[in-house]
Amino acid sequence: MKLQINTGPDSNTLRFAGDLDIYSVEPAREALLAHLADRPGIELDLEGVETCDAAGMQLLLAAHRSAVAAGKTFAIRTPVSAIEQCGQALGLGPEGRLPQAPANL
Fold first, then answer.
1. I want to staple 24 with a disulfide (CB 3.0 to 4.6 A). Which of 3, 12, 59, 83 is the partner?
2. How many CA atoms are closer than 13 Å to the CA of 77, on its beta-carbon side?
3. Per residue in 51-79, pLDDT tens?
4. What is the extent of the structural domain holding 82?
5. pTM confidence score
C-alpha cells in the first residue's frame, strides 16, 4: 500500500496511512516540511501506518530534529507497533524514541 497523507482534525496534525518506507519518504518529507513551514509545530497521527523501515524511521527522527532546531513542537499522537518494531530493530533505546503527544489530545 502506498502512503496516504492527510491533514488531521486540527491544522497542526498530519495523518499518515500505509507504508512509511524507502519508496514513500520523499513525498512524506515534502509534506512534513510544507506543513511545518508555517505552523508553530506538528503532530503526527501514525495510527494508519502499516509498515515502517529504516528510511521511514530516519525521516521521523530528522523531522523531530528539524522541528526542535526551529523552536517548534513535534509529537506523535498515536504510537503504532510498526514504528515501535522498526525502532527496536534499529536499536533505538529510550533516548531515541520520538516524543508522544499528551494522552488528552
1. 3
2. 19
3. 899 999 999 989 999 999 999 999 988 76
4. 4-96
5. 0.77
